[in-house]
Amino acid sequence: MAVTTDQEQHGLTAHSHGAGAPISSRADHFTSFDVNAFEVPGGREEIWRFTPMKRLANLHNGAEATGTANVEVNAPDGVTVETVARGDERLGVAGTPGDRVAAQAWSSFTEATVVTLPGDAKSEPTTITVTGAGEGQVAYGHLHVHAKQFAEAVVVIDHRGSGAYADNVEFVVGDGAHLTVVAIQDWADDAVHVSSHHAKLGRDASFKHTVITLGGNVVRLTPVVTYTGRGGDAELLGLYFADAGQHLEHRTFIDHSASNCRSNVVYKGALQGEDAHTVWIGDVLIRAAAEGTETFELNRNLVLTDGARADSVPNLEIETGEIEGAGHASATGRFDDEQLFYLQARGIPEDQARRLVVRGFFHEILLKIAVPEVRERLEAAIEAELEAVGV
Amino acid sequence: MATLEIKDLHVSVNTDEGSKEILKGVDLTIKAGETHAIMGPNGSGKSTLSYAIAGHPKYDVTSGTVLLDGENVLDMTVDERARAGLFLAMQYPVEVPGVSMSNFLRTAATAVRGEAPKLRHWVKEVKEAMSELDIDPAFAERSVNEGFSGGEKKRHEILQLGLLKPKVAILDETDSGLDVDALRVVSEGVNRYKQSGDVGVMLITHYTRILKYISPDFVHVFAGGRIAESGGPELADQLEAEGYVKYIGKPEAAGIA
Ligand SMILES: Nc1ncnc2c1ncn2[C@@H]1O[C@H](COP(=O)(O)OP(=O)(O)OP(=O)(O)O)[C@@H](O)[C@H]1O
Ligand SMILES: [Mg+2]
Fold first, then answer.
1. Given CB atoms, is B88 within the 8 Å cutoff of chain A?
2. Residue B92 pairs with which residues in a beta bridge?
3. Less CB within 10 Å around the terminal CB: N or C of chain A?
């Protein structure tokens, strides 16, 4: 059984819920393209309180770019890939930076990559490989992905390499478009990555966003979803695996401002080793206009060894009573000894039994990854993670 | 010839309040070809006995021995015990989300048999075993025990028994929660296992009704953490008529409830 569980289900009543510290309304959250509009965070601020500021390579404190990340796009026919300068009018339309590092990245990138997925067509997967500028280097970037009306496309963003990297990634999902994104953070051990994803969904648009975070010293990812018309559907999935010393932080924010939209957030993480630390903050705001909203979010963490720590804070704010349904659940548990006992009692050796349980824990997310190559790579990566600690 | 020997077994359970002695000197020998029914009131320690033999980490053996064919079971890890030929059909089988029944069964069979069963034979073997227990083939793709009804869980325990073919099987209240049809199907499964080789069975039960399907060679009354009385099948009839009152000092029927 889990050692600590905290389960909350919320019905149709208007209220807000924050686990722990008092939280001001997400509706008042400050955003700006101007880096100087943000104070340099010290680490006590609500949105930074879990982040190890000292390990951010000063991305929050004006670090100058010393290099550039290499962006390589492998796109099928029909998909347009451009490298554009600052000032291209398409940039920045999906969302405004919500913290100082995002604003710094916005102010500091020199060129952006724009990927346009054709409308009324089904495209083969596009792969964008982002390689860090190298150990000790600082780089900023910007990526803009536009799925035009009725597009049906898959984009895999694969982060690897070394160095500190801050960026904004935009997803503009046109009316009726279906965009599937898989963002993989498989950085080298030294890497620091602070990233904001801004998704803007058109009417009846469907957006499936999967985050997979495995490697890096500090990874802090902030996916934000907004809706511009009714009928939008966002599914945010996350899978992370933190080893000794790693800090992996995911902060999802679903801003329901249009009516009859849906969102579903499922993040699952495993932790092992001394000072492995994961953070999941799941903010959902259902504004007064967002009648008929249906939302659910869930975070589960599996702590495999002593010395690891998972923070999990769901936060649901509801400003209208006219919703379809809203709920959240969060649980952090130890490895389940009863499951282990059961499998071992059938002759399965302990290490193999542990792997079965961990794989089983991630199963529901793996199942939903629509790109077979990514799923296989991920299964292999999880296997390797488990081997590394000898479980 | 398989023999399970339990000698003067004392077992404590680790609770939040500390350690509490549950088994107070259990002696029992089960030989191949024998079926021993262990009957006793709630809380008398029957499950504790089965968990301790299987090696559940919550239970501490404070003294005594358990030998399987002369080998000290207590020195073995949980999985070693299973590979040595012990099997415990649990009173409350555990759910393992995300692990399919078919993957689980194959992994277990591979571990116990020492090599992966040939896929073609295996598929057929599992299919037959499932149909003998009236288990819908769709269960193979479901997560282990997850969302199974009580009866479905018990059927799957017996499915595993048939596939893993242990030397000694401990069946902890496999009959509880079964309706009449399921009881018959499950009992037939146990009897098939008994006929399949020289195996020993420890059949833990609270009620006598399963003994109409699975005939015991010996019946033991378990009370207060030890065997209070042993006899032949006639002892079950006596329990049916008199209940456990004699052993616990308060009336509790063994046959009705
Ligand atoms: N994990 C545990 N923590 C605390 N007490 C326990 C634990 N396991 C067993 N016990 C206690 O030990 C005693 C024996 O329990 P056990 O489950 O072995 O009985 P049983 O004979 O199998 O009962 P039943 O017929 O209800 O299955 C009971 O008083 C029970 O409360
Ligand atoms: Mg019991």
1. yes
2. none
3. N
User: How many Å is the Cα radius of gyration of chain B?
Assistant: 18
| Contact in structure between A205 and A173 (CB atoms under 8 Å) | yes
Q: Of the ligands numbered here, which is closest to the C-alpha atom of B224? A: 1
Q: Do A346 and B77 touch (CB under 8 A)?
A: no
Tokens of residue A257, six digits: 């401002």
- Nearest alpha-carbon partner for B53 in B74, B27, B28, B38: B74
- Which residues make Cβ contacts (< 8 Å) with residue B172, sequence separation at least 6? B46, B47, B50, B88, B89, B90, B91, B204
- Digit-coded pLDDT (tens) for A338-360: 999 999 999 999 989 998 999 99
Pocket of ligand 1 (CB under 6 A): B 13, 15, 22, 40, 42-48, 58, 91, 173, 206
What residues in B contact A360, CB-CB < 8 Å? 96-99, 143
CA of A341 to the centre of ligand 2 (A): 17
Tell the burial category of B241 from Cβ atoms under 10 Å away from its Cβ (0-12, 13-18, 19+): exposed
Backbone angles phi, psi at A379, to 5 degrees: -60, -45
pLDDT band (50, 70, 90) for residue B73: very high
Region A242-269: mean pLDDT is: 97
The CA distance from B102 to B93, in Å, is 16
Average pLDDT over residues A36-57: 96
Q: Which of B22, B59, B88, B205 to mutate to test the pocket of ligand 1 (most atoms within 8 A of CB)?
A: B22
pLDDT of residue A48: 97
The two structure tokens encoding residue A251: 């902060």
- Across chain B, mean pLDDT equals 94
Q: What is the residue type of B128?
A: E
Calculate ∠ Cα A173-A176-A177, nearest 5°: 45
* Cα–Cα dist B145/A62, whole Å: 54
In this structure, the number of other CB atoms found within 10 A of the CB of residue A21 comes to 8
What digits encode the pLDDT tens for the residues A133-191? 999 999 999 999 999 999 999 999 999 999 999 999 999 999 999 999 999 999 999 99
The ipTM value here is 0.95
In angstroms, rounded to a whole number, what is the distance separating the alpha carbons of residues A361 and A380?
Answer: 15
User: How far apart are the CA of B41 and the centre of ligand 2, in A?
Assistant: 9
List the one residue out of B42, B44, B48 whose CA is nearest residue B228: B44
Strand order in the sheet with A138-147: A16-18, A309-318, A277-286, A247-256, A218-227, A192-201, A164-173, A138-147, A111-117, A80-85
pLDDT one-digit tens code per residue, B134-178: 999 999 999 999 999 999 999 999 999 999 999 999 999 999 889
Give the pTM.
0.84
- Among A341, A352, A364, A368, most B C-beta atoms within 10 A, so best to mutate, is A341
The CA radius of gyration of chain A, in Å to the nearest whole number, is 20
- Number of Cβ within a 10 Å radius of residue B88: 29
Please tell me the predicted confidence (pLDDT) of residue A373.
87
Contact assessment for residue B108 and residue B100, using Cβ atoms and an 8 Å cutoff: no
Distance from Cα A262 to the centre of ligand 2, integer Å: 46
Phi-psi region of B111 (alpha: psi -120 to 50; beta: other; left: phi over 0): alpha
